[in-house]
Fold each of these.
Amino acid sequence: MTITAEALKEILLQQQKQFEAAQLRLVETLTQQLQIQPPNSAPDTISVDSIANSITEFHYDPDAGLTFDSWFRRYEDVFQVELKHKDYAWRVRLLLRKLGTTEHTRYSNFILPKNTRDLSFEKTVQQLSMIFGERSSLFNFRYQCMKL
């Protein structure tokens, strides 16, 4: 059985039409699926995780100038701008997660009998600034005044 050129051409055209129809159905199906699927929140989660990982842990050392105010000044924009879509409780938890072990224990003991989750973000920052702020002896304070 030999196939003539015309018959072969006819078979190829028929296959081409079938492939085009199948491709068109595939494109329509994919288009519908893209319109139905809700926006994926995974990139946001990854972004928030990477932002949280970029914040270093805070360790209080007033002699070296490592106070909470200087540390928070560095990351204030992260908490106020980049994480503004997160609620205050989430930001408080992240802030407290970034405290060193001794700093977290000291803060928790300072606010007793309240829990860490009971304070607002601003109040938490204010308390941490007060606890881990600059310390100066009375002698040092007077000495600095005399130098003026």
Amino acid sequence: MKIIKINITCLVALLSVLFIGCEVDYKDIDTLGKADSGASEVSINLDLFVAGSWTPDQVAASAGELKVEKYDLFIFKVSSDGNYLEYKEMNITPDASEMVPHNQSIKIGNRNIVLPTGGTKRVVVIANANDKASYPVLCSLAESTKSDFSDVTVYDKFINDFSIKADKQQTSPFIMMGNALVANADMENIGITLAPQYAKINIKNKAAGSETNGLFISSVQLKNVPESAYPFINDYSKKTSRFVNYEVNMVDNGALEEMIPDKLYLLYTPGTSSAAADYRVTVQIKGKKNGVDFEKEFPCSNPMYPGYLFNMILSLSGNEVEAEFVPNWSDGNFSISGVHLKNNKMTFPFTADKFWGYEIFWATNMAGAVSVEKQGNESWYSITVEENLVRVCCLEDNTSGRERTASFTIGLGKKKETVEIVQQSMPSTITFNGMEWLDRNLGAVLPLTEENITHSDTYGYYYQWGRNVPFPTFGTVGIAVSDPGITIQQAHGMKEFIVSSSSSTDWYTAVSVADKTTTWEDRTGSLGNPCPEGYHVPSYREYQTILPYKNSAGIGNFSKVDFKINSAEVLDDTGTLYDALYVTSAKDEATIYAIKKYQTDGAYYLRLRRIKTDSGIYLRIDKLSGNAQSDFAGESADAKLSSASAIFNSATTGMETIYFPAAGRRNNKTGELVNQGINLYSWAATCWDVSSSGIYFDPLDGNTRIYCIAQARSFAQTVRCIKNY
């Protein structure tokens, strides 16, 4: 693209935008990087979160550490011409915070923003800046007064010049940052998580005693602390830094083992091989050891990473006070972490995922290349080193009838960690309404029980409709744009999430809408479906036997107490038309009662409940057998609701129950994770018109809904398999 200033010699200007009378080459916001950044106006939604735990032990953050008073928002337009500040908004007041299910984070708000262009964006959010942060001169594209936009803030300058200053002990609210690259701004939701830009030290006195015996602490002081930090670059060699001593913290009761918690915070302190000693924060401890006054300074770990909780453990060795930092990286350290890594063990489902698997991240202050090595010759799994992470994948379904294990090492130089991996065997089934369902979603490692239902390990893999490639429930995935040249066979050999174009809701665009297939297997042919042998993706009709029938008659919404009889429900292969009686509760109770095959010998009762707990939301469906006389007594909706509730509450035997988690899904335009812990989406194998159907469960809008609904096939959603019969 050509970029030159606007030159007007002999022309007529209309509204300072349309130039008539000569050939003009110009550059404006819409054309800036148009070839690779998109020019159409888009609306984006930003979901803002605050990380609720400390690395590496996932200790919960305190209320003061989670507090956000104001935040600043910056969006940079990414293009081949440069990354320009397109949008900025300062001093935004967050919404009331709410806990996020399944983890310790909190949500502080949502922003809907209209941008003049789509395409790739860099989003930066900085919270609690106040007088602690120093920004470069900020000028957005819309504020520019230069025809070549030379006065607009570019991303590189922003990250190199942004700094945080703390010349004294930091207190709540603490400065936090979130920074994300968004591949496509035209998406439903963009999640940004704010993380603390400081490290925390807790002091533990393992020799706690009294003023006359053991170790008694009277004061603690952080010394040689950075006065400022450059969080985007984390490199003090590029900046001149000053160091300060923080004020003395008096200890209320120096005989306690846990001392001054939630008080010692310091900015990121880099460690370098050339000048590490210059950057070492020290902790000065004063008190008494066995009745004798002492004063001693202890060097901290090197480096002190932001977002990390460091435990300083004090002890007495003879008559000497000693301190151990955990984690301690002063002599070279290599540590690993990951969502699925617990005590250096990873548990995989029986289902293979040869592309994405689980991720292990590392942190180190040493130079060199990270290496991995298998401890056996197992071929059923792979480990690969990628940029900043190690990816572990199970390459085969485990059909052996028993779980299998393996181990490998990951490390740098002499520092190594051993990781054990376990792949589960084929899970059990449960019987519900005459069908055998897997006891979990495909790709989940926990069964769907009352105890587990809100745990993220029950989500399983996500699948795009008619494509047997699993996508993970955590992290980001690579994307490819839908293209008529991508065949079914090619799509099943690709790891990328295929995003739909603006003109299509399908990832497969080689055929017209009129030629769309009607079942999963029609599309995949010999590739089959993602379920294990002997199982299948539930059909739309199978789901209709346990959910409100379609929703064309308004059944399945509940915002008030109501009832109705729905006719012409097709629930089996005979094509018989059945009636069904539905009764809905008020929204607060979030319950739908139904009698399927109403007034026939095969009638049965259903109760569908949206249940909300402190740890999350889920769908529970209960079933009781009935007969031709089964009914909800009374003439009014309230009476029928009372009767329906009494039938289930009085049942002592014969009740069947099935659970579905609110697992969310991946957005069809971006591949990003959306609505985890909030909404339930699960595929059916058969179509409803040109889309595909399944469960859709959205408890947060004005009319909570539980019903089967058509979904665009390029979304990635969960699958719950049923045994063939």
Amino acid sequence: MEKEISIWLENLQSKKQWRSYLEAEDYLTAMNKIPGASTGDYVSLFKDTLGYLMDGDNLADGVDKTKVRRNLIELEGDKLKLELLVEIRALESAWSVKYTFQLMPVSLDRIDIVEAKLRDVQEKLTKAESKLRDMEGKQVKSSQKEVHLQAVSMVTEKLNDEGLIIWDDLKHESFELTSGKDCMRVLLPGWYILNLNVYLRPQMCGGTIDLHLNGSRILCYLVPFTGSVGTSAALGRGIRLKTDDEIGVKLTKSPTHVGADFTLLRVGD
């Protein structure tokens, strides 16, 4: 069993350092010795106590000082005394013991100080890279977020005054209907696969089915003269949609009894 432990402290601003190599008798007494504990057990215990209530940047959180289990006292000759208060639990009992360490100043030249500062910079860069990777991972997950919209317009006897299909009420976190319910407004931008089906009763007027984006036609389908039978039209394409884009479906020649279903599937950012 190793008997000697080493404790090293550094002032993050000045880069001054303190270190001590301690034998068991330097920090163990009859009052704080744990029966059966090895040197490794004590080292683990001391590490946990030093790190208690510390955040990721190794700085004390804004907590009640009475909860902090460590105390650092300045001594003459630039020495330090480190006190660790440890809570030990066994069975249904708990008690507190204190360990005391005397740390000696370490003589550093300018190169050592520069190396210490470079080490801090490297640690900050490593943390920044880690945060950046986390952010990129979240962005990738966001860009891969699957969004599926299905909008329906039940068979109506007429369209609105502009010939646009009126859609049934829509509840979706990534889309919303305009006030007239004749267009769908995009709330989540990205690449989408679009599919539109329009169903018509027998038509004698012909005309076209136009898919509009922000008032401009982007797809068109010619409605045939069907005479006595019903007909339908299907339009589809991939499209990049931006926030607040509005999609509508317009029919010319004012056909009657029109129904439709419309789907959008988000496939990328």
